[in-house]
Design goal:
Blueprint (H helix, E strand, L loop, with lengths): L11 H4 L21 H16 L23 H10 L2 E7 L6 H13 L6 E5 L3 H12 L24 E8 L5 E7 L3 H10 L11 E8 L1 H5 L1 H21 L6 E6 L9 H12 L5 E5 L15 H10 L19 H4 L5
Parallel strand pairs: 1-4, 1-5, 5-6, 6-7
Antiparallel strand pairs: 2-3, 3-4
Helix pairs in contact: 4-5, 8-9
The chain binds guanosine-5'-diphosphate (GDP) and magnesium ion.
Guanosine-5'-diphosphate (GDP) binds next to helix 4.
């Protein structure tokens, strides 16, 4: 048998004549082209190219997008799954770029992970890496020489979906656990919500119990910028009312940069009055996630922020209250009336 015919004894390879007297091109036993000079040359070429690839990378460079998400925050699906198994307090966090939203989250994480958030202990987080990402700048912070920027500008891998951070805290006073889902959103989302009423990305807020509106405390201190900020808060409240078609979650105005100065009572009153025009009420919590003032500790106000955020939660009723019967009272009928 030759290299081009699988019929035993065929010499078509040497003589070009088919042993079965057929046309080699159409013979069923003919399995390939005759080895020729040019084919030998091609083999040599293959050998050459084999040699050339020695030492070259064995895997081709990936040309598509990385399979890993750019951010390690949790998507809305992960939060929904979590909500199916336990009560999760979703928080809406709004505020213009540079207001201090990410700083609040980074500082909250640093405080709780260093056991410095009075009244609360850390229990768990499903997004530790994402917290580490936003807190890295602050970790490198040298108290005497703070960097210009403690946090990086927030960008999402998918601009239509919020990225959430998760924290489970335990309240020292009663051992109660709270699961917080905190979105770290780009400020542009708020700017566009106010400017163009773009609400599609805020669907998740319908599950929120509390909304933080984060405001740059320095802008509220400055006489020139103050009125602009107050008006925007009013516009934002209007958008929120429309988004919820009426009944809105509790609002907390988080004013950052407390280390630059205290928010005057008159400014607080003007903020509340502006919201009042839209029948909206809010609690104001001044904070300083980071601080350049020795008098104000970094993390100032965050305990207050967490207490205010979780304050409206349903108080757990006692599972099996003991009630000694009192003669003459209609206990059976009155049961649960006081709850
Ligand atoms: N000193 C000080 N710096 C703050 C405070 N809040 C925010 N910052 C800084 O202000 C900058 C913008 O904050 P960031 O949280 O990124 O704003 P975001 O766009 O709302 O997320 C960052 O460099 C923060 O470190 C504060 O209370 N005190
Ligand atoms: Mg941010």
């Amino acid at each position: 048998m030759t290299g081009v015919c699988d019929f035993d004894g065929c010499t078509v390879g040497e003589t070009g004549v088919c042993a079965l007297e057929r046309d080699p091109a159409s013979c069923e036993h003919h399995v390939g082209k005759e080895p020729s000079e040019s084919a030998d040359g091609a083999e040599d070429e293959n050998d050459q190219s084999d040699l050339a690839t020695i030492g070259a990378p064995v895997l081709e460079h990936q040309t598509g997008m990385s399979a890993f998400p750019a951010s390690r925050t949790l998507g809305p699906d992960a939060i929904s799954k979590m909500m199916a198994s336990r009560y999760v307090n979703v928080i809406g966090i709004l505020g213009d770029p540079e207001a201090g939203k990410t700083a609040c989250l980074a500082s909250l994480y640093l405080m709780i992970s260093n056991a410095k958030l009075a009244g609360w202990n850390f229990a768990d987080s499903k997004s530790l890496k994402a917290f580490e990402d936003i807190a890295r700048g602050a970790r490198e912070w040298d108290a005497g020489n703070p960097p210009d920027q403690m946090t990086v500008h927030t960008e999402l891998s998918d601009d239509r979906q919020p990225g959430f951070l998760h924290l489970r805290l335990v309240r020292e006073s009663d051992g109660r656990r709270v699961d917080l889902a905190l979105p770290d959103l780009p400020g542009e989302w708020t700017t566009e919500l106010i400017g163009t009423s773009r609400v599609d990305r805020f669907e998740f807020m319908k599950s929120a119990e509390v909304i933080w509106i984060v405001l740059d405390g320095r802008a509220l201190e400055s006489k020139e910028r103050r009125q602009g900020v107050i008006s925007r808060v009013g516009q934002l409240a209007g958008r929120i009312v429309t988004l919820f078609s009426g009944k809105i979650p509790r609002l907390v105005l988080v004013t950052t940069h407390r280390d630059s100065g205290e928010l005057p009572d008159t400014v607080q009153a003007r903020l509340i009055a502006e919201l009042g025009k839209r029948d909206v009420t809010a609690t104001i919590v001044p904070v300083a996630p980071f601080s350049n003032d020795e008098e104000v500790k970094p993390g100032f106000g965050l305990e207050d922020l967490i207490s205010t955020t979780t304050a409206g939660d349903r108080s757990l009723s006692e599972f099996w209250p003991s009630a000694d019967p009192i003669e003459g009272t209609r206990s059976y009928i009155s049961y649960r009336r006081d709850r």
